[in-house]
Write a structure and sequence with these properties.
Blueprint (H helix, E strand, L loop, with lengths): L2 E3 L5 E3 L12 H15 L6 H27 L5 H5 L9 H49 L2 E3 L3 H9 L9 E4 L8 E5 L4 E5 L8 H17 L2 H28 L5 H35 L8 H7 L6 H8 L8 H9 L9 H25 L4 H29 L7 H21 L7 H5 L16 H28 L9 H31 L4 H8 L2 H20 L16 H21 L9 E2 L7 E2 L39 H4 L2 H11 L2 H4 L1 H12 L4 H11 L8 H17 L2
Parallel strand pairs: 4-6
Antiparallel strand pairs: 1-2, 3-4, 5-6, 7-8
Helix pairs in contact: 1-8, 2-4, 2-7, 2-8, 2-12, 2-13, 4-7, 4-12, 4-25, 4-26, 5-6, 6-8, 6-9, 7-8, 12-13, 12-14, 13-16, 13-17, 14-16, 16-17, 16-20, 17-18, 17-19, 17-20, 18-20, 19-20, 22-26, 24-25, 25-26
Length: 733
């Protein structure tokens, strides 16, 4: 086996797939042991750590959606709290609007606090389940401590000295079949074994115990148990209750939500199984790196495993195995750096998780700053960017440090493209994208929105997807180039701090692109007019953010210009300036198409009943309440089908009674979209209608709009009128 020099570090084995794991020379064995020791003792996060953190975040996103479903949407968006925001007496118009919108925003903030309790409760329950699980497993297996048997002496012999509390051996009275496993905590470690271990040779027992002790030394036992508990809680406390509720009353969103939940659960399960397999590789390397262990003892023990049965082969082919195949484990032992790669499939699942996390996270952030929606999306992009960078940037950093082939441009670019595709799929697999929540739940509440791209023109959806895929590929090339430029190393005093700085920089650079993309996707899904989409990027701060992103990406490359080195195989690094110039052109072109794209085709008209015969066009404002809910009689909330709602007839056919009917005027406001504010004639007409209603908030909005009929639309008047009509549609007053 040949070795190649790693960047500013010791030589690491090459990654030829044809490497024979058993026929290595004694020198190669010593070299592999040194490499394994360097990898498991590196200050860089191990692959198990980063992927487990991502799984917990996905479970948290599911918990936040379930909390919103049960405690916000299930309570009809808190009618008492929202109706209490209606002003009781006349006051200056500006004061009326400020008090009303401020009160509604406070209600939304309270709803966000309730939604945030979901992930916190999930984490608390997972910790309790983890603690209880340790006790329950010992009780179920009828395990008892063993301090004096031959097995206990073998464990004491292989346990390293002066590395914290010594583990205690527990022997099971039943539950034979999995040989041994690490359990307990850092302060009270345990190795639980069954009687089958007594039939093994001393060499195999030592290898088995070293492997389990490696799990304890790497501290992955508690984290894995926590992630598994979160996964089970996601299934039992989130998925199943929602499935039961949807089975009883599927509504308009039932099918889409059920399909998405099933797919997300499968992805989470497959990812968890993959993490468990990676965990075994880390423990194998740590066991093989033990200086007191005989050479190839771990490999010999793994090679002595029985051939897998048909059921085990089927489970492995489905990706559900929690332990890798012996041949794969031997291949990693023969080439330790092989476990520090990052495949396209792993990037795809990371993108899926990021898309799921961003959706719920940003809606909560937006509730904290209701007057600054674009800024909220940028903050959401920053937080999600750090999550993504904490997985993929660290992984590419590790790959560059060991000279892994996954860090080469030919493999990094497709992996980055898979990352972008995963973000797209994750955004559409989120529960918020199961349908048009604004339309199908009859609310304009800030925690309900339209995110599904399945009903938009295919060209626009493809353009948005292409931007993500291309941007992901370029981000991968930039990340690997940055790692080479900064001299990524496995160990050393600068390895972890510089990697952490790279993660921080990556999150900052992803903030504006990610936030802008999700905001474009939301506006596109809501069929917003092109001028609204253009308004997203037609702001000085957005331009400044993009320039900061581009300049921030160029600074490391410019600092290292002239000092570029050959890659691990002699190929020169891709030119960062050319790549980032191409990135700027492509992303700008995609954003321009999203903003200026052709007008979406008009949705099939839905004719309202009655004599007017006026068609109901779809709303094109992201904050406009959809008119599927109508005023209810009394205090009950009654939803009426769309084709039974009244429509305000043309101006010449209106009667005085129609002009003073709040339901008809709000209906016109809902269906008018942005045209009633951008068209001078329609704006004046709507202002007159709002002023003639017996409603304090709408009259105040009309008074503010009358001050400057030809000037820019007052945002407070627009938002207040939309929110007021939303309350009227929901509660009938």
């Amino acid at each position: 086996m040949t070795a190649v020099p790693g960047p500013q570090g010791p030589p690491y084995p090459s990654h030829s797939p044809n490497t024979a794991p058993i026929t290595a020379t004694s020198t190669s064995t010593a070299e592999r042991s040194d490499v394994a020791r360097a990898l498991v003792s590196s200050p860089l996060p191990l692959p198990t750590t980063t992927r487990l953190a991502l799984l917990v975040l996905v479970a948290g996103a599911g918990a936040s959606f379930a909390t919103w479903w049960w405690l916000v949407l299930g309570r009809d968006n808190w009618p008492g709290a929202q109706l209490a925001c209606l002003p009781g007496a006349d006051a200056p118009p500006d004061e009326v609007l400020a008090r009303f919108t401020g009160c509604v925003n406070d209600v939304r903030l309270a709803q966000s606090a309730v939604v945030l309790c979901g992930p916190l409760a999930l984490l608390a329950l997972a910790v309790l389940c983890r603690a209880a699980g340790r006790r329950l497993s010992l009780w179920r297996w009828q395990a008892t401590p063993d301090h004096s048997s031959a097995l206990a002496r073998r464990l004491a012999a292989v346990a390293p000295e002066a590395e914290g509390p010594r583990p205690v051996l527990w022997v099971r009275g039943r539950g034979v079949g999995i040989r041994a496993r690490a359990s307990g905590t850092v302060r009270r470690p345990r190795i639980v074994a069954d009687s089958y271990v007594l039939s093994l040779s001393d060499r195999s027992v030592d290898a088995l115990f070293r492997h389990e002790l490696a799990h304890l030394r790497l501290r992955d036992v508690g984290r894995v148990r926590l992630a598994m508990a979160a996964g089970w809680l996601l299934l039992l406390c989130v998925t199943l209750p929602i499935v039961v509720a949807l089975a009883r009353d599927p509504g308009l969103l039932g099918t889409g939500l059920l399909v998405r939940m099933a797919i997300v659960l499968v992805v989470v399960l497959l990812t968890l199984c993959a993490v468990l397999r990676v965990r075994e590789h880390d423990a194998d390397l740590a066991a093989a790196a033990d200086p007191r262990a005989p050479r190839d003892a771990t490999a010999a023990h793994i090679g002595s495993a029985l051939a897998p049965r048909r059921t085990e082969r089927l489970v492995r082919s489905l990706g559900l195995a929690t332990h890798p195949a012996p041949a794969v484990r031997l291949a990693v032992l023969a080439d330790p750096a092989r476990s520090w790669g990052l495949s396209s499939l792993e990037c795809l699942t990371t993108g899926l998780a990021a898309g799921l996390v961003f959706t719920d996270l940003t809606l909560l952030v937006a509730a904290l700053m209701p007057e600054h929606t674009q800024l909220a999306y940028m903050v959401g992009g920053l937080l999600t960017g750090w999550v993504v960078a904490g997985v993929v940037t660290v992984a590419w950093w590790r790959a560059v440090a060991v000279g892994h082939r996954d860090a080469s441009g030919r493999r990094a670019a497709p992996a980055g493209a898979a990352l972008g595709l995963g973000v797209l799929l994750g955004s559409q697999l989120a529960g918020r994208a199961a349908g048009d929540w604004v339309r199908d739940t009859g609310t304009a509440d800030g925690l309900a929105t339209a995110l599904s791209l399945t009903q938009v023109p295919h060209v626009q959806a493809l353009a948005l997807g292409a931007v993500l895929v291309i941007g992901g590929a370029l981000f991968a090339l930039w990340s690997t180039s940055l790692a080479r430029t900064l001299g990524a190393t496995v160990d050393g005093p600068r390895s972890a701090p510089v990697c952490a700085a790279a993660v921080g920089l990556s999150g900052l650079l992803l903030a504006v692109p990610l936030g802008s993309w999700f905001l474009f996707a939301r506006l596109t899904a809501a069929r917003a007019a092109p001028d609204i989409r253009w308004a997203v990027i037609d702001t000085p701060w957005w331009v400044a953010g993009v320039l900061t992103t581009v300049v921030g990406a160029l600074v490391p490359a410019a600092a290292a210009r002239g000092s570029r080195r050959a890659g691990p195989r002699g190929a020169r690094q891709p030119r960062p300036l050319a790549l980032l110039a191409a990135a700027t052109v492509l992303v700008t072109a995609g954003a321009g198409w999203a903003a200026f794209g052709s007008e979406p085709k008009q949705a099939p008209a839905t004719h309202a009943s009655g004599d007017s015969g006026v068609s109901a066009a779809p709303t094109d404002s992201v904050n406009s309440p959809d008119p599927t809910a109508s005023p209810a009689s009394g205090s009950a909330d009654r939803t009426v089908p769309l084709d039974q709602l009244p429509v305000l007839p043309p101006k010449e056919e209106r009667t005085d009674a129609m002009r003073t009917d709040t339901a008809l005027v709000c209906r016109a406001l809902s269906l008018g979209g942005t045209a009633i504010w951008t068209d001078a004639r329609r704006r004046a007409d709507m202002t007159e209608l709002l002023g003639g209603l017996d409603d304090t908030v709408l009259r105040a909005a009309s008074a503010v709009l009358r001050r400057d009929p030809a000037g820019p639309v007052d945002s407070h008047a627009l938002v207040a009128s939309v929110l007021r009509c939303d309350l009227y549609f929901r509660y009938g007053r």
